């Protein structure tokens, strides 16, 4: 999870650099490429997953809601910064386009100091000691055996569950209508103009 977030941050910094250099290069195609790279990024779903997994149970709901809060805050800051009096002027719009790289850079610098997700360490890697160390680093010293037991129960449940690849998921008839609904909802969100705003 952490490595994937780091790779996504590199992708966002590259996209921001491409968009920021589009005026110098006199290439609107660079803006299209940069926006496409931002769209391909998996930061939002990964943020939910990572923050939810590293949070103690009593703070998990609050931690997962931070993504929506910062998503909305980012849009508000973008709209304010895009005013002609600030970064929306003819000379400064490349800075506005490249500003999406700033949060990615902050996360790229700070994320290596955070531990990997405890459920990931225990369930995927089978590293119980690494899981305990990550929990102590995240939540402080104390008795965390109940959380580890919960992760172990989830791991036992997952053993009986077949994990499908993307191709198997698309071919599975039982999931076809759910897949259609998700694709339709995602497409309409993309086409409604919210990203342009």
UniProtKB/TrEMBL annotation:
<dbReference type="InterPro" id="IPR020846">
    <property type="entry name" value="MFS_dom"/>
</dbReference>
<dbReference type="GO" id="GO:0046323">
    <property type="term" value="P:D-glucose import"/>
</dbReference>
<feature type="signal peptide">
    <location>
        <begin position="1"/>
        <end position="27"/>
    </location>
</feature>
<keyword id="KW-0812">Transmembrane</keyword>
<dbReference type="InterPro" id="IPR005828">
    <property type="entry name" value="MFS_sugar_transport-like"/>
</dbReference>
<dbReference type="GO" id="GO:0005886">
    <property type="term" value="C:plasma membrane"/>
</dbReference>
<protein>
    <submittedName>
        <fullName>GTR5 protein</fullName>
    </submittedName>
</protein>
<keyword id="KW-0732">Signal</keyword>
<dbReference type="InterPro" id="IPR036259">
    <property type="entry name" value="MFS_trans_sf"/>
</dbReference>
<dbReference type="Pfam" id="PF00083">
    <property type="entry name" value="Sugar_tr"/>
</dbReference>
<keyword id="KW-0472">Membrane</keyword>
<dbReference type="GO" id="GO:0070837">
    <property type="term" value="P:dehydroascorbic acid transport"/>
</dbReference>
<feature type="domain" description="Major facilitator superfamily (MFS) profile">
    <location>
        <begin position="1"/>
        <end position="197"/>
    </location>
</feature>
<keyword id="KW-1133">Transmembrane helix</keyword>
<dbReference type="InterPro" id="IPR045263">
    <property type="entry name" value="GLUT"/>
</dbReference>
<dbReference type="GO" id="GO:0055056">
    <property type="term" value="F:D-glucose transmembrane transporter activity"/>
</dbReference>
């Amino acid at each position: 999870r952490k490595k994937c977030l780091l790779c996504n941050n590199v992708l966002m910094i590259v996209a921001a650099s491409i968009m920021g250099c589009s005026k110098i290069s006199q290439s609107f195609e660079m803006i299209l490429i940069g926006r496409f790279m931002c769209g391909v990024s998996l930061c939002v779903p990964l943020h939910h997953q990572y923050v939810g997994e590293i949070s103690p149970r009593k703070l998990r709901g609050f931690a997962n809601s931070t993504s929506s809060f910062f998503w909305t805050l980012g849009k508000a800051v973008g709209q304010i910064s895009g005013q002609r009096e600030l970064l929306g002027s003819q000379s400064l719009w490349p800075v506005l386009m490249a500003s999406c790289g700033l949060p990615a850079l902050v996360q790229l610098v700070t994320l290596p100091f955070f531990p990997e997700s405890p459920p990931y360490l225990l369930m995927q890697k089978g590293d119980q000691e690494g899981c305990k160390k990550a929990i102590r680093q995240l939540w402080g010293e104390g008795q965390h055996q109940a959380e580890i037991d919960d992760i172990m129960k989830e791991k036992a449940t997952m053993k009986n569950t077949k994990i499908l690849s993307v191709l198997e998921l698309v071919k599975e008839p039982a999931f076809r209508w759910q897949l259609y609904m998700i694709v339709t909802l995602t497409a309409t969100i993309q086409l409604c103009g919210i990203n342009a705003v």
